[in-house]
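Input chain follows. Return structure tokens only.
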Amino acid sequence: MHRFPLSLLAILVVVWGAAAQAEPIETAARQALLLDYDTGAVLLEKNADDLMPPSSMSKLMTTYMLFERLKEGRVSLEDTMPVSEKAWRMGGSKMFVHIGARVKMDDLLRGIIIQSGNDACIVAAEGVAGSEEALVAEMNKRAREIGLTRSTFRNVTGWPDPQHMTTARDLATLARRLIVDFPEYYRIYSETEFTYGGIKQGNRNPLLYKNMGADGLKTGHTEAAGYGLTGSAKREGRRLILVVNGLTSMKERAEETERLMEWGFREFGNYALFKAGETVIEADTWLGADPRVPLAVERDVTVTMTRAARANMKVVAAFEGPLPTPIAKGTPVAVLVVSAPNTPETRISLVAAANVEKLGFVGRIGAAVRHTFWGPER
């Protein structure tokens, strides 16, 4: 195997989904996951695949279903939903809807997102699906379709149920899907207060008040789950997603989530390496009408790694060469390997950026003679 060091060793690269490591950081949370929104790089994880009660963080799945209906035009923000006795009697955090009233979807969304209203969740579920149970069935089906591999929803509120479970990784996946799929509605998560029926309530997300770029998403708390948060913040074009659960108080949740977010922004950076279609290197061909073929990346290559690791990053193109012809444009023929100290190696496919035909019989004879006596062309 021939390995061709690139001329870009001074440039730091981070690759999609690559995990990176900084100085270890401890967290008091029972479960935690911190990842980069753009690259998917995991910056911190602790019991991220353990099943846990999501409490009100499961309302993220409820709002996903409502956002989807809004986007598809099946319901509008101006549509009103009737308040049933079940919704009115619902305990826990409330929007304080009145039995028999009709509530606009626009208000219900804020009642769910900002006020964490269990009653608002029931009104919305019954209004769009006929019953809470019907929407829960849809939630579980849709959750699998969007990548929540271990979550099971038993209600739309996060009300304690031994079978109502998720994981920190699933919540992070859900948060990312909310941001990607519904940018027109995601902004509601950044609103800090909402008044309904003369009762003003503040958003329970402590990060929104820290002037750190936070714009979502949802807190949760039950006795079994402890205090949790699924949060996101964007700073200088870079977004992080954080999930924690199992903390002991609102104070600890506020302090711990701020500390972990700040650590992620401070210790790690995103580094762009190549644009989609950009040539990385040229490879020799064997008996080709063109003696060399450009190798390119198919998508933008950006990697997340610690700022300290950047100076020692290495980028190498690895392939068996010379490449046999014919070569069709777009064929994977090599691998781009990105490595740095204390950082998992990342591999990205390189494809031929042009077609290369095989030489005719006479040309092959001449090329073979030249290769025998003088080696490959340079």
